[in-house]
Specification:
Layout: E1 25-30, E2 33-37, E3 47-48, H1 54-63, H2 65-69, E4 73-77, E5 90-94, E6 102-108, H3 113-131, H4 134-149, H5 152-159, H6 167-177, E7 179-185, H7 192-198, E8 207-217, E9 220-226, H8 229-233, H9 250-254, H10 259-275, E10 279-282, E11 289-293, E12 298-305, E13 308-313, H11 317-323, E14 328-330, H12 334-339, E15 345-349, H13 355-367
Parallel strand pairs: 6-7, 7-8
Antiparallel strand pairs: 1-2, 1-9, 3-8, 4-5, 5-6, 8-9, 10-11, 11-12, 12-13, 13-15, 14-15
Helix pairs in contact: 4-6, 10-13
């Protein structure tokens, strides 16, 4: 198979471990290649030299990925033939800590108001919508895994970090457990802090930001970067009293979707309790309400969306298809089923018309 030309480079020069002070980490730019520098020259008077175009900024970052972020990072850009939902995605994998690998979805823009509202804000909204849905992540894991397997050099590079896992397991772990968006920009965006606070409960906590600026220092062109990927991995010292833990309620989950979602849920809850009074509906989780029998394992997970409800039931798909004829059934990839800890199937329910079918599913669930 032909090598994927659009993948980010895999073996540039490694970034140093030491930090510089005040100016951030410093690099010297020679043509289109970066070299690490210990610090700014003594008595230097750096003059800001804005990037001419966004393409220059993007090329510089992707072309010097390991210099900027470390030799144990790897980049991946989705293939042109990928599912249209994911074709725009660029990823950065960080294997610096082998026990806790991380995956970032990359956004690279210059710090301008127009870029923020027309490009980054819609991008981040789309990223959050993608990452909150385990079905989408399962599809993304498969697309990335298939692409890597077709690219011998990329496969060889990823195999160094498997730690006994399969490639699909490694991808599922990093995307399901630790996904974040990494915004790389030139100047602080004045709107970002306000918007980030407003969206703190959704994508605000999923965003890390790195600032990269270009300077003229004498005859040399230099770059500064602050903070680094390593900085995000360090836990800041806790100042003051710990934050109050948020306890989610059913009303919190209902607010994520229309009234029909709540109506469907209340009907299913009522029917489940008729079948077995020991059934528990746990709304304390951030992303879903779970159903379990007494103190046993979870049997189902309710997610509330704009269109109604997405329900994951811990039953194999073949059995669900025998019982359900009128609601949309989602096939869950193996990596997603591992996330739910067993054989599972997805159901999209948008009306009360055929809820009786779902009640039959609940009877199987509870009596199994």
């Amino acid at each position: 198979m032909k090598k994927q030309a659009s993948s980010l480079p895999l073996k540039p020069q490694a970034a140093p471990l030491q930090e510089t002070t005040g100016f951030g980490r410093v690099f010297v730019l020679k043509k289109d290649k970066l070299e690490t520098a210990v610090d700014l020259p003594e008595n230097a008077k750096p003059i800001v030299k804005p990037f001419k175009t966004e393409q220059e900024f993007v090329n510089l970052i992707y072309g010097n990925r390991a210099v900027l972020f470390g030799e144990k990072t790897m980049g991946w850009k989705m293939e042109p033939t990928a599912n249209s939902s994911f074709r725009w995605i660029k990823l950065l994998f960080d294997f610096t800590n082998p026990d806790s690998p991380r995956c970032y979805i990359l956004a690279v823009i210059l710090g301008k108001e127009k870029d923020f509202f027309e490009e980054f804000f819609p991008f981040m909204t789309r990223v959050f919508s993608l990452l909150r849905d385990v079905i989408n992540i399962g599809m993304l894991v498969k697309l990335i895994g298939d692409g890597i397997k077709r690219n011998k050099s990329s496969l060889k590079a990823f195999e160094k970090h498997l730690q006994g896992k399969t490639l699909d397991d490694l991808l599922a772990h990093t995307l399901l457990k630790t996904p974040k968006c990494l915004l790389i920009t030139e100047d602080p965006l004045t709107e970002l802090s306000t918007v980030k606070k407003a969206y703190a409960e959704t994508w605000g906590g999923m965003l890390d930001i790195i600032y990269i600026r270009k300077y003229l220092v004498g005859k040399a062109t230099m770059l500064s970067m602050h903070p680094t990927l390593a900085d995000f991995q360090r836990k800041p010292k806790e100042l003051g009293p710990p934050k109050e833990k948020v306890i989610h309620t059913e009303d919190h989950h209902f607010s994520k979707g229309p009234l029909i979602g709540r109506t469907i849920y209340e009907r299913l809850k009522s029917e489940a309790l008729k079948i077995d009074k020991s059934i528990v509906f746990n709304a304390k989780g951030k992303h879903y309400i779970s159903l379990k029998k007494g103190s046993g394992k979870n049997l189902a997970f309710f997610h509330f969306r704009k269109g109604g409800m997405y329900l994951v039931v811990m039953l194999e798909e073949k059995l669900v298809r025998k019982l359900v004829k009128h609601s949309e059934i989602k096939t869950l990839p193996e990596s997603v089923q591992k996330f739910w800890n067993g054989k599972s199937t997805g159901l999209v329910i948008s009306s009360m018309q055929h809820v009786k079918e779902i009640v039959e599913v609940f009877k199987k669930l509870i009596k199994q």
